[in-house]
Every structure is written in C-alpha cells, then in structure tokens.
Batch of 2 targets.
Target 1
Amino acid sequence: MPAESPVPFAATLHVRDHCLCLHLQRAARALARLFDEALRPLGLTNQQFSLLMSLNRPEPPSIAPVAKLLGMDRTTLTAALKPLERRGLVSVSPGDKDRRSRLLAITPEGIALLAEAVPIWRSTHDAVDKRLGEAEPERLRQTLRALS
C-alpha cells in the first residue's frame, strides 16, 4: 500500500463501524448459518426451507412472484429449485394459459418435510427473538421491510 493512500485507514474504520450493508450481510450470514445447522438433520438449508415455504399456498405460483418474494432473480431461483425437484419436494410444470411459463408446486413429500421443519424453524426463531429482547424483533422486522 502506498505511504499516503487517497483513502485513509480512518475511512476504512468508519465504513467498518457504520456500513448498514456490511452489518446486514454479516447478520444475514450468521442467521443463515444458524438456521442451516438447525435444519441440517432434515437435509435442508435455510434457503431451501424458505423456498418450500414460499410454495406452500393454495395455487401453484409462477416463477416471478416467488423470485420477488425471496429477493432472487429468476435464474437463481431456477437453480435453487433443481435439487428440490430432484428430491421430489417440488414440481415444475408448464402454465395452463401460457405453456412457456412455469408453475411451481410443493409435492406431498415437500409438505411432509415442511411439516417436520416448521417446529425446528420456530424453536430456532424463538431463540433468536429472545436474544434480541422483548420489543426488538418486531421493530427489526419493520425496519428491514422498510429497506427491502
């Protein structure tokens, strides 16, 4: 590094201490690891749990609304569906009106696995909420929704 950097080390420390994106990414990774570990006995990751949960609805959705809900692009969602489809947990079929569109459905096997996963998710989530304190979880959710 040059003797006199145009970006002083103090700026690095300021970003480290104040960057919302950095702190949100670190928290998201820590939470994902926590939930990944909790769901591991079922062979699920946190992302897969969220994906299965997003398909737990009365009518099979197309890719676009699921991608939007999960904050993913369509290509990433399509890739994330592949292992779940191979395991028989989800099915992807052509749309009724537009054969080019794809409808995503959770299978009975996916529902059964989700039924096992929800209590694990709840207990893990309750532990996280407890760490945040009495009113903080809902306040944090409101703040995060405002940012997304």
Note: The chain has seven helices and two strands.
Target 2
Amino acid sequence: MILVTGASGYVGGTVLRRLAESGNAVSAMVRNLGRAARVEDAGAPIRIANYDEPASLVRAFSGVDRLVFVASDGQARAVMRHHANVVDAAATAGVGHVIFTSITDIDASSGFYFTPVYRDAERRLRASGMKWTILRCGLYADLILSHWIRPALASGEMALPVADARVAPIARADVAEAMAAVAAAGGGDGRVHELTGPIAYSFGEIAAAAARAFSRPIRYTPASPADYLTRLWAEMADPWPHAFASLCRSITERRYACVSGDFEALLGRPAAHFEDFLRRTEPTTEPLPAIQTAGRPCASDKTRGSV
C-alpha cells in the first residue's frame, strides 16, 4: 500500500489522485479532519497524523509499503523537526520505500534558508536503513508566478537582486506527476533525481514571457540586495524576508541554472516550458505558503552516498 503525506496540499493531492486513478492501493495522510474534506473526492482511505506527534505518525505508517513524503513547510526549525519525525516513524513502522521531495539547492556552501533543512532530511533517510528515492526539485514555476510575476502585473516591474542569473523553473504539477510515477513503479534503489524545467531563463526572459502570456507590460529590473530586503521586511513576517533574500542570493550564485534530463527520463516527455505554464495558468493564482524549492548546478550523485 502507498501512503501520501500532505495529501490536502497541491502536490500531495495531485499525487494521490494520479495514483488512485491508475488503480494503485493508496491512502491519504492529513493533519486533521478539516483537511480530510479536501481529499475525499480522491476516493482513497484517509489516515490522520500530525508531524509533531510521532506516535500518530507510527500508527499512520503501519502496513505502508511505499511512503510518498511531501516535504513539510514553514519555519526552518519546525520543518527540520517534522522531517526527522517522519523518517524516524517510517523506520519504526517498517516502511519499505520512501519517496521524498527535496530541493536541488542542497550544497553545504549554499546560504539558502532551507538548505540545512533538506540536507538533514536526506542524511536521515540515507542512514535510516529504508529504501529511498529522492526527487530534488528546482525552483517552482508557481512560486515565480505567485510571488514575483503577479505583483509585477500591477506595477509593471519585477525588481529582484538576481543580476543576469538564469533559472530552469518546473511546475508543481510536473513534480507531482514525477512523484506518482516513481511511487507507482516501486523500486527504491537509492537514486537522486534532479527535477528541473527544460530551459534556463534569465529574469529578463521571464518578464518577457509573462508580458506575452498575460498581454501586460512587465519588465525586469535588477535591484540591490539591501533594497530588496528592506522591501521584504515591509511586506512579510519573519522568517520570510531572510528566506527570500537568501533564495535570490542562491539564484545569483547560479544554483538554479541547471537543466536536467531526469524528468524526461522518468515521464518520457519534457517538463512544461515556462511560457506554456504561464499561458494555461490564471495570473491570480493564490500565493504559495512559503518557499520550498531552489536549485544549483546538477549533482552527479545518482546513487547512495553522503550529502
């Protein structure tokens, strides 16, 4: 049996529906009964568990062969604790194979706010004794739309401290498709897959693509890190100014520039091009709750090893 965590969220919910539609024995894990209502239409059994309650996780993971572990979200210390609890509970419950959504900006030299969180989760998985597959996701196209393009639709300017760096965005829908494919296939051979879009774009090109897709004038303007951080503190609560500022610094350091072929190898097709993603997405998409994914030059590590 396959269990999908975070099933009331976009990625987890999409994975759940894909697996159920293809005839897999799958269950959904949600944090409470209120969230359970969001996944009832998938027709899958629902298990209630809380990332901060290890005993509830062990119960939820009982009898699970494959765990689709969609990463937690929020303040870094809490997310690190949640990830540790899930890995420990999965090992205790005897889960056979864990499929985990990590990030591509995983290098120890990165200053990105969430990098230590995901490095720790990967380390725990490798040391757990369970079989695992890690899907390191690049920068979400949805995040670029929600946090940077959408405000620019009103102002006409996307001002970011990323200089002329490039990114290869991937849509959350494509990440979910990849997770469902890996979960359905089973295995658990200790592989790391880098999931990125098929093209790396400059932010000038991203602004131009958005202008074409939404028929509104948008331009990219390089901003200073100090000015950007000041703006963030006026708009966001802690820790998000630091998270977004460090994300932009990682972009500037070319940690997002990789274009990987791993998605196409898994799905038999390339991930969606960024402008195609924009054209089929409403510009009023609700903001993502937080930053989840970043990127770096493609890792050569495709087998078991230390992070």
Note: Residues 285-289, 292-297, 299-307 have pLDDT under 50 and may be disordered.
